[in-house]
Each structure stands twice: as structure tokens, then as C-alpha cells.
Amino acid sequence: MNEMPKLMLTPFRDGYNFNLARNVVTTETEGGMPRSRKDSIGKPHRANPTYKCTRAQWQYFLAFMRVYEGLPFLAELIVDDINHQWYECSILDMVLPVSTLGDQIFTVQLSLVAKPIKYNVESDIAFLDIYKMTDGQVEQYFKLLEKLVNEDLPSALGGL
């Protein structure tokens, strides 16, 4: 089987928005808190990335859309993580809104449905514990841990 095509453009961060899918069903009650239960796993997210393209990137985008029209593809998005990752996507809109800045910059916004990435619950639990332990100073914690392992420990052992 052929590899899924990749849209080799990174979305513009300004104006980027998405909706995280929840894998639960919530039922309102007459009195008290609503009740929720797991419904399914892997409901797709919705993302509305905007791409600002130079002339060459715009030609690439148009060619990509013509060649792979109607087929799922991989797009680099920020949805389940703080960094861009590749997601299997499909375009939802029948038309794509395009605006131009002169004849040099083309902007297009896609309405995508994105298959969620697989995640590791144990890693999420560990992250929650570290966040709580560091009072939210996770980045500082890992910087200090990196310094301890890469600088302080080798110095303390004297190159053993």
C-alpha cells in the first residue's frame, strides 16, 4: 500500500483554532451534577488551520489539492500536543476561502477533521504528577534535571 500523502506546509500560528473531541457522553440531570461516561475512543478532532503561502508554496498547495482531492492526507497540526505532529486528515469544506496580499502571498483556511493520535495514559499520569510536584514549573524542573544528569553528576564523579 502506498504511503499517505503529506501536506508539506506548516499552518500559520496566528488565528489557528481547533476543537478537541471528547470521548464521553454527558447527560444533564434534573438535580445535581451531569453524569458522564466513556462513549468511544478515537473521535476525530476538528481543526481550522490557516496557511500563508508564497507563490511557490501556493503552486504546491494547488497541485496537492488537485492530485489528492477527496483523499485523506497527513497534515502537521497542533491538536493533542504543544508541538506540531502529523495527523491523518480530511477536508470538510466544499469551497476553500482564499485571500491574497498582492500577487505574492496567498492565505487559505482549511476546515479539517483530524484523526486523534495515540497517547500513553501512563505518560499523562506521570506528567500530571510532575506538574503537581513542581507547582506548574515543569520546564524549570526538566532544565534542572538535565543539568544534574549532564553536568553536575559527571563533575561529582570526577570522570569515573
Structural classification: alpha+beta
In one word, what is the shape? extended
Mind describing the biggest β-sheet?
Answer: 8 strands, mixed
Distance between the termini: 51 Å
Number of helices: 3
Note down, in words, how this protein is organized.
- The protein has 160 residues and is of the alpha+beta class.
- Helices cover 29% and strands 32% of the residues.
- Strands 1, 2, 5, 6, 7, 8, 9 and 10 form an 8-stranded mixed sheet that branches. Strands 3-4 form a two-stranded antiparallel sheet.
- The longest helix is centred in the C-terminal third of the chain and has 20 residues, at 138-157.
- It is extended and about 60 Å long.
- The chain starts with 5 loop residues before the first strand and ends with a helix.
- The mean pLDDT is 88.
